[in-house]
Amino acid sequence: MTETVLVTGVGGPAGVSVVNALLRAGVRTVAVDCDASAAGLSLGDVSGIVPMAGDPKFIETLCDLAVSQGADAVVSTVAEELVALGTRAEDLAGNGIAVWVPSQKAVEQCSDKAVFAGVLAEAGIATPATGFAASDVPGPWIVKPRFGRGSRDVYPCDSMDEVAWALRRVVDPIVQTRLSGLEFTVDALVDRDGRFAGGVPRWRLETRGGISTKGETFADDRVLIGAAAVLEAVGLCGVACVQGFVTDADEVVFVECNPRFSGGLPLSLAAGADLVGEYVRGIRGLPIRSSRLGYRPGVRMSRLFCEVFEG
Predict the structure, then answer these.
(1) 301 phi and psi angles, rounded to 5 deg
(2) Are 280 and 73 a contacting pair, CB within 8 Å?
(3) Which residue, 179, 263, 290, 310, is most buried by CB atoms nearer than 10 A?
(4) For the segment 72-115, what is each residue's pLDDT rounded down to a tens digit?
């Protein structure tokens, strides 16, 4: 029987990257999105439309599509889908469809930036001071939504007046001390036993809309060890991307963790880490092979889908 995997969120760069990786590996792929005009729908062997995750018919529609196409595994690249998939995992399994998503608590601890900062602080992991007003944390500041992703409604501020202005414009905002230095993401995989199986750290040299469009892989044990500690603190298993800074003072500080593949995944794949293939193995209950998650430092990528350079 032909191996078939259903991938959601193919309108975004992470979904497109996962579909392309599976196709390169010879896996029959069902490309799915809630938007009929999503760019990645044309990439799959077949495609389908599902409702958004909050729709009561989301799981039923997804299940019917997977069954009709013979898919036995689902890769979700949309964080908002994870709780629904986890809640109905047994129902999906009853139809021969495997999913592997983190616990609802882990997803919520990553999605709520105020809670996430508290979890890291309690675990003794360096993270920016976080509060709800400029007076709560040392400046300079950054104001951002407590919930949400990307760079939308994120405002750097150098005075309390600027913070007050930003707070009026952001829905459910938080205030953090603004970091300076080199920003990074670690594309990581944690096995079902909570073991950090491997990760690829890459500098975020240029971003657009919160998505890394230019980057370079690098080697720094402090970053990988710290990322593993972050994932353990929030109790996350499966795929994740962890973001932080190596500050001007050469301190590794973590600011965010997303329980999904990142938009910059193509660089980690180009550097040699088979994050997609090993994650699919994990979905099917097979052991994750850390040996397949090694990577080459110094691989650079511009515009992520266009050019790859070896350093």
Answers:
(1) -140, 135
(2) yes
(3) 263
(4) 999 999 999 999 999 999 999 999 999 999 999 999 999 999 99
Which residues of the chain form beta strands (DSSP E)?
4-7, 28-33, 46-49, 73-75, 130-131, 141-145, 155-157, 173-177, 181-190, 196-208, 211-217, 238-247, 252-258, 299-302, 307-310
> Which residues pair with residue 211 across a beta bridge?
208
Residue 311 has pLDDT above 60, yes or no: no
Query: Would you give the DSSP letter of residue 135?
Result: G
Please report, as a single letter, which amino acid is at residue 226: G
Phi and psi for 88 in degrees, rounded to 5? -110, 20
Domains and CATH numbers, the chain: 4-99 (3.40.50.20), 129-178 (no CATH), 181-310 (3.30.470.20)
pTM, 2 dp: 0.93
Strands 141-145 and 196-208, bridge-based pairing: unpaired
Cα(200)–Cα(41) distance, integer angstroms: 28
Name residue, tokens 């109790």.
235
User: Which residues, including other chains, have CB under 8 Å from residue 69's CB and lie 6 or more apart?
Assistant: 4, 6, 30, 46, 48
